[in-house]
Design brief:
Layout (H helix, E strand, L loop, with lengths): L3 E5 L2 E2 L2 E2 L1 H13 L4 E8 L3 H9 L4 E6 L8 H15 L3 E5 L2 H14 L2 E6 L1 E3 L3 E6 L4 E5 L6 E5 L17 E3 L29 E5 L9 H11 L2 E4 L1 H5 L20 E5 L5 H4 L7 E6 L6 H4 L2 E4 L2 H15 L2
Parallel strand pairs: 1-4, 1-6, 4-5, 5-12, 6-11, 7-11, 13-14, 13-15, 15-16, 16-17
Antiparallel strand pairs: 2-3, 8-9, 9-10
Helix pairs in contact: 3-4, 5-9
Bound molecules: flavin-adenine dinucleotide (FAD).
Pfam families: ETF (PF01012), ETF_alpha (PF00766)
Protein name: Electron transfer flavoprotein subunit alpha/FixB family protein
Keywords: FAD, Flavoprotein
């Protein structure tokens, strides 16, 4: 019998997070012949749901309710448990995001199922590779029987090319969302504009070397030219140069961009834990002995206040 893989899509500010499409690709990689069924929950999501089909899902189920406008563990688990019961999937795949990290273990444990979290690659369809010890090593994990839950790290498994010619196959799934135990009163978004840090393909990240909140603007200018996002070390956050939402590292966000530009940060082990798997790392630091140079692909030894504005000007000439 044909396997069935559910992919939980995530919407942010009215659009899919790219990791939703990467999860569709992962579900296909697990079994090329499986039926891939997208699931989208929210207040008004039906209009965008088709995009999951365009990225490779065979059909999409939508559940619309005012109670699902913001993520809550009880709202999502009620609905997802109902969908799992009716659809009887073999695997459930989603992004290793704040939502995925919260809901996947909750439901997997309710159902007594196996969970592979934070997968960065898939081998042979059923073996998942995930970083351990803060990215210093990788382990291979397989769930040998029963329903499999998998969360995938953003920016690691490429999404399938979008086929805008594909349409249809979006169905409303009827479920009554019972009263929630958690009521979200207000959501305060610190990073309402710009590129989402955890999914950015280019990150310009600053440390205590920036010396002030105003100087962080210099990083925004560089990130803007490159269509990237700005991140930070905890040193910079502790010094109040920027918001903790921007912190990268062991106790911050884990990122895997194509390009990570580390500016005026030393490369402490706790910072490196959140960015060492970036594809290309460029470090700018005035101290040639700074630890960040040990993991950098390209290093620039010098004063960031000279180098960053020059880089921004040069990139302006070549990036269109
Ligand atoms: P510093 O170490 O002070 O480095 C500043 C750098 O800027 C220096 O290398 C200096 O040479 C350079 N510099 C200064 N001026 C210039 C200039 N003009 N031009 C060029 N370079 C210049 N840290 C994180 O980042 N993320 C985490 O998630 C995290 N979690 C932690 C968890 C725990 C339990 C603990 C104990 C610590 C954690 N830390 C974390 C903190 C971490 O140990 C470091 O203290 C922190 O990363 C240092 O920040 P920094 O590199 O900005 O500052």
């Amino acid at each position: 019998m044909m396997a069935k893989h559910l992919v939980i899509g995530e919407i942010s500010n009215g659009a899919f997070r790219n990791v939703s499409f990467e999860a569709v690709a992962a579900a296909k990689m697990m079994d090329e012949s499986a039926e891939v069924v997208g699931v989208v929950l929210g207040e008004s999501v039906a209009s965008v749901a088709e995009e999951m089909v365009q990225h490779g899902a065979d059909r999409v189920l939508t559940v619309e309710s005012e109670k699902l406008k913001e993520y809550t563990p009880d709202g999502y688990s009620q609905v997802l448990m109902e969908i799992i019961e009716q659809e009887k999937p073999d695997a459930i795949v989603m992004g290793h995001t704040y939502i995925g990290r919260d809901i996947a273990p909750k439901i997997a444990s309710k159902l007594g199922s196996g969970l592979v979290s934070d997968a960065v690659a898939i081998e042979g369809g059923s073996t998942f590779i995930r970083p351990i010890y803060s990215g210093k090593a990788f382990e291979k994990v397989a769930i040998e029987e029963g329903l499999q839950f998998v969360t995938i790290r953003p920016n690691n498994i490429p999404a399938l090319e979008k086929d805008t010619g594909k349409s249809g196959n979006v169905e409303a799934f009827n479920v009554e969302v019972k009263d929630l135990q958690t009521i979200i009163k207000e959501v305060v978004r610190n990073t309402s504009t710009g590129v989402d840090l955890s999914e950015a393909s280019i990150i310009v990240s600053g440390g205590r070397g920036l010396k002030s909140e105003e100087n962080f603007k210099m990083l925004e200018d560089l990130a803007d030219v490159l269509n990237g996002a700005v991140g930070a070390s905890r040193g910079a956050c502790d010094a109040e140069y920027c918001d903790y939402a921007m912190q990268i590292g062991q106790t911050g966000k884990v990122v895997t961009p194509d390009l990570y530009i580390a500016v005026g940060l030393s490369g402490a082990i706790q910072h490196v834990a959140g960015m060492s798997n970036s594809k290309i790392i460029v470090a700018i630091n005035k101290d040639p002995e700074a630890e960040i140079f040990q993991i950098a692909d390209y290093g620039i030894v010098g004063d960031l206040f000279d180098i960053v504005p020059k880089l921004t000007e040069e990139f302006k000439k070549v990036v269109v």
